Amino acid sequence: MTRSVIAGIGSYVPPRVVSNDDLAGLMATSDEWIRMRSGIEERRFADEGVYCSDLALEAARNALADAHLEPTDLDFIILATLSPDHHFPGAACFLQAKLGVPSIGCLDVRNQCTGFIYGLAVGDAFIRTGMYRHILVVGSELHSSALNFSDEGRDVAVLFGDGAGAVVLASSMEQDRGVLYTELHADGRFAKALHMDVWNISRKPYLTHESIDSGEIWPQMDGKTVFKHAVIRMAELVTNALNQCNLQPEDIKYVIPHQANMRINQLVAERLGFGQTKFLSNIQKYGNTTAASIPLLLDEAYRAGKFQRGDLLLLVAFGSGFTWASTVVRW
Ligand code: UT7
Fold first, then answer.
1. CATH architecture entry for 3-175
2. Whether the model pTM is above 0.90
């Protein structure tokens, strides 16, 4: 049976570091509040003129170099993002042009914080059917231009940062490596608990001066509802993956959770009786980078030598949609 293995991994964050104190200069917040409530100390913001596909391009190049492959070796591109370059066409098309590989298929995945895991699942399915051999899966976000840095937007604006992470999935006949298990969920009844309208396509015209002034262009979040569901669903995902794969907690080298809030991941670890060190984190440095957070964390841990070939990793995410998803990967 053909399986998908991660043949290469890479990430990229823009160079500009924005501290909590920098944000406190823009709105009524403080370093203490942000650290206590989320664990975030700083994040990266891209400069004016940088697109989501530009961050994706850097991460993709790093992943391709790690895989010792060229862009022309790719058969397909999947880009997960909630901050695409434009409303249409998809950001994956822009990434494809920047990579210089015209004519291969491209797909945008719009599943927010779980976008990377959904993207991996789609890529894995294509590879298992034998349709493609090398698929680039990227999570990339450019949040900083769509955050409301006034007091009204402070609950959301302090949490998010820009960045990208990518993997190259490759087909392999090795049976005990690569993507071993995937679980995907959504519950659209909670779609408005964390959403950004920008415009309303049922209105003619879809965008007006009044709608901009009313603030519907900014993300809106019911933080407490998201937090509560995240803890429950992420714990469920870990338990399900262990049961379905017939694994014990000690079989998993690391859980690589989506980085939305340090307190969410600490509560999930506590609820499961896992030691906190089993759950990796880098939210302190990058904030919540949505679809990029898992590949960014995975790449950082890989480069730090935290896991080796043969180690089992459990990727779990929860976010807007609501969507939640997990994947078990043997490195
Ligand atoms: O990627 C997945 C999506 N996102 C998430 O998973 C986020 C989930 N939710 C959360 O992480 C948390 O709910 C937050 C970090 C957003 C908020 O933490 P909280 O402990 O739920 O705080 P809260 O919303 O209850 O707010 C407490 C207080 C409020 O003031 P009052 O009403 O007690 O006077 C807020 O107005 O903190 C105030 N507040 C702030 N104060 C300083 C809200 N945002 C800020 C801020 N700085 N940035």
1. 3-Layer(aba) Sandwich (3.40)
2. yes
